[in-house]
Amino acid sequence: MAIRMDQDSADISEINVVPLVDIILVVLIIFMLTAPMIMKPSIKVNLPKAATGEQTVQTQLSVTIAANGNLTLNGKAADAAAVSAEAAEALQKNPDVQAVIAADKDVPHGTVVQILDLIKSVGVKKFAISIDKK
Q1: Structural domain contains residue 127
Q2: What is the pLDDT of residue 27?
Q3: Domain containing 105: what range?
Q4: What is the pLDDT of residues 54-99, one digit of tens each?
Q5: Residue 103's beta-bridge partner residues?
Q6: Same domain, yes or no, for 53 and 32?
């Protein structure tokens, strides 16, 4: 008994990669369009502008003061007591912790000094003020 195979009935042995590449390119475009929206800070703070300034390092203690006076600690709403407690905890974990304060340019100077004093009273010695470069 002999089996006869025609060349026309041969199985497809190669993978067609063109649809896969098309799908990957569409996904890449979607990521490129959505990434800037995800990376934007959720808190609108109009930082003061300055010509001189250095890049700040990532910190465990990031305080943001909005124009209306609301405090945000590491991206979450907080009050003065929570800022003080978190500063003390961060200082215990790392004695060289740096507090980064981002205050809206319309926030009174006294409010920024009050937050600086609050953090300094716990024992944090390093501070940085966030700005927008000109």
Answers
A1: yes
A2: 96
A3: 49-133
A4: 665 566 788 888 888 888 888 888 888 888 888 888 888 888 888 8
A5: 65
A6: no
Q: How far is CA 76 from CA 41, 63, 64, 65, in A?
A: 12, 9, 9, 12
Q: Are 69 and 31 in contact, with CB atoms under 8 Å apart?
A: no
The structure tokens listed for 71 are: 């405090």
Residue 100 lies in a domain: yes
- Rounded to whole angstroms, how far apart are CA atoms 121 and 87? 10
Give the integer Cα–Cα distance in Å for 92 and 113: 23
98-103 sheet: strands from edge to edge = 76-78, 71-73, 61-65, 98-103, 126-129
Amino acid in position 44: K
The CATH number linked to 122 is: 3.30.420.270
- pLDDT tens digits, one per residue of 72-82: 888 888 888 88
pTM for the model stands at: 0.57
pLDDT at residue 43, as a whole number: 55
3-state secondary structure 4-15: CCCHHHCCCCCC
User: Rounded distance, CA 84 to CA 132, Å?
Assistant: 26
